[in-house]
Amino acid sequence: MMSISATANSEERSISGAHVLIPGELDLSHGVALYLDAINVSFDGFKAINNLSLTIDAGELRCIIGPNGAGKTTMMDVITGKTRPDSGTAFFGQTFDLTRMREAQIAHAGIGRKFQKPTVFEQHSVFDNLELALKADKSIWGSLFSRRNHEQTERIEELMELIRLQDFCHRPAGLLAHGQKQWLEIGMLLAQEPKLLLLDEPVAGMTDEETERTAELFISLAGKHSLVVVEHDMEFVNSIARKVTVLHEGSVLAEGSMSEVQNDARVIEVYLGR
Amino acid sequence: MDMLKKLYGPTGWAAILVALVVMLVMVPVMALLVPKTSAFHLSAYTVTLFGKYLCYGIVALAMGLAWGYGGILSLGHGLFFSLGGYMFGMYLMRMIGGLGQYGSNLPDFMVFLDWKTYPWWWWGTDHLAYVLLMVVLVPGVLAFVFGWFAFRSRIKGVYFSIITQALTYAAMLLFFRNETGFGGNNGFTDFKFIAGFPVAAASTRAGLFAITGLVLIVALLACRFIVLSKFGRVLTAIRDAETRVMFCGYNPLPYKLAVWVFSAVLCGIAGALYVPQVGIINPSEMSPANSIEIAIWAAVGGRGTLLGPIIGAGIVNAAKSWFTMSFPEYWLYLLGLIFVLVTLFLPQGVMGLLNRWKRT
Ligand SMILES: Nc1ncnc2c1ncn2[C@@H]1O[C@H](COP(=O)(O)OP(=O)(O)OP(=O)(O)O)[C@@H](O)[C@H]1O
Ligand SMILES: [Mg+2]
Fold first, then answer.
1. Do residues B269 and B136 make contact, with C-beta atoms less than 8 angstroms apart?
2. Nearest residue by C-alpha to atom 12 in ligand 1
3. Separation of A274 CA from ligand 1 center, angstroms?
């Protein structure tokens, strides 16, 4: 599928062991894709994120669970620039300070996001949705004058096959079933060729078979990409999880393998044992 | 060649060709060569009336692009139209020369104000090329500055519309004042010459009509190019789900700004073509109601299409011309009624009706 080698470029630039940081270029050489430290977000005095610290390794597939209102979506808002934290540090690789970047810049740097409520361009066809997301010149001049080349068309077709929407190429996305919209959004995410994928409840509304295929897809993406998956579907989490983080009241309650987390007394109390 | 094929199919190009022949050949011939006694003669009044409609068509097209495709509902497009009109009006005032009532080199209203020289902002307005540049620049720069602040602060929807409405209202008050140097509530009128040709001559009228028609068609093709490009798809995506567009790596600001400024410039050009044909420009063109009317043209014709708003402008203005002859005081009520009916029963406007009819 896609071949993104996160570390290859940066290794070329290490000169006699000393590592050169280049602003504006993703640097995952220390093995960390996402670094959140002491993040705080409050809405009218209500602390949605409370001193949250979290590290996602390059190539890792991390599942995040937690009861409703735990702050999972808000955390993604912080990472993608939609919400500015009141305080704290958020880095993408070593070079990108996420708290200083705008949404489009963050997306450009290599963070892709799937929303909790599937958001695709409902009036646009499946094909157009993927084309808009495709990694390309996204300036106004690029959009006005550049034409889609053969490679890009092929790439879109490849993606349509992957998300099994090739028969719906010209259908407006608004007419797709809920699960198909979820898939389309995942396809759009992949079209952007991000290094870090944030997936907010990706299998909600999917059939069992679709869920299973999503699990396979995510597992195949891990390694080359870092994935952060927020999900309430425990069976799904269980099928993909290596490391699970439990969020509660805006901070990390527990972290570890699925079984470790499931046996944690505090987790049982606030979440699983409800 | 490829591009032309993409813009329109054979029928579309044929229609454009017919429109060009009508506007550039038939109308001038019927106005100038066909004898006055013939049933096929077009009076200067009729030519001017149609010319006025074409100007409105350009404005409606500009509205349709910004609103229908960009989701930016301007209730201040009358301002950009008026600014283009005023800029060109300044040139026409200069061309009156010493033929005014007071026989002065200054326009009558300046003599009346006891001004001895032209104020600095009239500089260069006796040069056609300079004025043509200003017709584009003044609305364009204003739209850019306004749009920059509005879009950057992420003002949208009804808030944006209300601010544009306030903007045109404020400008109207400013232009009403005599000291502003634009003729106060009388504005500019009594034009004599344009590029050496007498403004009132039938041949000048026909020429202005043809130029207006040409501009409308070029503008339509330009808008069509924009809408069919990826730019157009990004634009409609911003209209429908702006946040998603940002997370796809696009910065919506330049997209909105570009379409907004382009739309304003089209209005300015339309205003500049309007003034010599209609023979007057005054601050009432900036009244809030005028700008709202423009939005209604687009709604009646059909948002989300380019041709729709142009047709809408024609329909509404034909109705207006006819209605205001008999019951002028009720026009605004009728306009309101049309708007309500279209919103309720024809959300896609006349174009939606045509499409439905074509399918059955
Ligand atoms: N813009 C906002 N204004 C006010 N409160 C907000 C806002 N966004 C989120 N919150 C609050 O912050 C808390 C965390 O919300 P968040 O959406 O991050 O939870 P979540 O973990 O994603 O929950 P769910 O599992 O239901 O999606 C909730 O109590 C929510 O009501
Ligand atoms: Mg959530």
1. yes
2. A48
3. 20
